[in-house]
Amino acid sequence: MTIEQAYDVIPRQVLFGNPEKSMPRLSPDAKRLAYIAPVNNVLNVWVGNVEAGDYKPVTNDTERGIRAYFWADDSRHLIYLQDVGGNENWRFYGVDLDTGVVNDLTPFENVQVQLVQQDKHFPDQLLIGLNKENPQVHDVYNLNLNSGELTLVVKNPGNVAGWLADHELNVRGALAATKEGGFDLMIRNSANSEWRKVAAWDSDDALTSGPVSFTLDGKSLYLTDSRDSNAGKLTLFNLETGESKILAEDSQYDVGSVMLNPDTYELEAVSFTRARNEWQVISPKVEQDFAVLRGIHPGDFAVTSRDHADKTWLVAYMADNGPVSYYSYNRDTKQATFLFVNYPALSNYKLAEISPISFTARDGLTVHGYITFPPLSEHKNLPMVLNVHGGPWGRDTWGYNPEVQWFANRGYACLQVNFRGSTGYGKNFVNAGDREWAGNMHNDLVDAVEWAVEQGYADPKRVAIYGGSYGGYAALVGATFTPDLFSCAVDIVGPSSLITLIKSIPPYWATFLNVLLKRVGNPDTDEEFLKSRSPLYKVDNIKIPMLIAQGANDPRVKQAEAEQVVEAMKSKGIDYEYMLFPDEGHGFAKPDNRLKFYAAAEKFLAKHLGGRYEE
């Protein structure tokens, strides 16, 4: 039986088009439900009465679609974020559900908004960060949702990367960047008190530590903290005595999500992302709820929304071989009601299962990841796509991934590697990636491919390297540093020169710059080293076909990163395809652009790996 006979080609529209419905959120008074769904193929927010089910769109975005929104605690206002053309200068827009009026709450050009804090006891207020006065850092403002009035609360001295407010909406915590690539935790007792340093994380602990929340009385902080341990553990830190109590820890994995009670701010549960996401229940008050939730669906779950009474939870379940399923859970009756799945059309097709893997890298480090095979295939001698995650300070996880299913459906094994420098595996693992871009981070990818070949899974003559952002850089590195290993490469918004990447970061990354300099290299003092790790300077080595895709408005990886390597390939007569999207940023938000890219990528891979594609 051939792969064509075994199962249908999943249309790109089903995999990469807009969801039918997604991201449901319950209003704090539990009377209304919101979700994101398309209007004329553009994602907008819909709201309806839970009892009546009279859902209708309450926003009218006609450009990029809305991907992030939340309820204000007054149950009347709904806030969504939007930028222009992918420039990441986010604005807050407020929808007044009583009047239907949509207001631009932060109407400032070239300014980015961040949510600092909201609290149910101040239902018509938000604390927000704006880099209005200084594009490099965010000051904190109080936003009154009824009047739209903005009041400056605290000015950024120039080094604060993040702010933390207590449950009276007093800004009392600040994460200050240090020159060495670490962070100091600054605290004050009240809005009028002096700031004092209560904790410091050096660069070794910077990516595995940080503040989570104040306790209700404001006298202690929940912290993730990897000092005196390998992995980031959850601790309760007393601000008066300096004493620290460990609440949850794992020797290898960092604490992931932290679930606090919305009234008492007591710890209820924490998650660790191992091969899959696993919850550790701390509070007996939610033990039965978690036991029930574990039995509803076999996927990994997260509580995404809670009403003010804390009687109704919305729960999302992630499976590897199906869409995201959403349920409403009643804590009184312990009953769950199915709401919807985000991509119902997926149920018409055979999807692949994702399998966790691990292997030993050449220097003895254990590296984890995932492999996915085409459904019903023999797991032998397959063409393979090495799909490299972005960040690099992130990681691949188990669960539905449209690209992974796309590769598997087209006949490829898909290999995902959490190479050193990936987060979640403790500080020793993330720090092993320092100054290893195109070094040992790339060696981990090479070792992973060789592992897959040794297992008999992959045909060594038909391996592609593919990725976005850091993954795009890795694809360029694969084509220039190890061109004999791969038969083709796909780079999506990947930097080609580490020097120009670091020198052209967006202004609001200023407090993160020292982390980059420490972990990647300093263009002022390490120019030759960074050149030696930059694909741009090894273009002569390219001998495989390349597809490069770029957003013209990308604030992180500028258009020049793609153009300079394209120009170098053009001058040397090297085979390439280049796609520039004038109305996109760091990734492709518009469905038409996404589908155009995936159509080109699919044809490119079929040509060079021999898989199938949708005409």
Automatic annotation (TrEMBL):
GO terms for biological process: proteolysis. Keywords: Hydrolase. The keyword GTP-binding does not apply. PROSITE patterns: RHODANESE_3 (PS50206). GO terms for molecular function: serine-type endopeptidase activity. Residues 448-482 form the Rhodanese domain. This is S9 family peptidase. The lineage of its organism: Bacteria, Bacillati, Chloroflexota, Chloroflexia, Candidatus Chloroheliales.
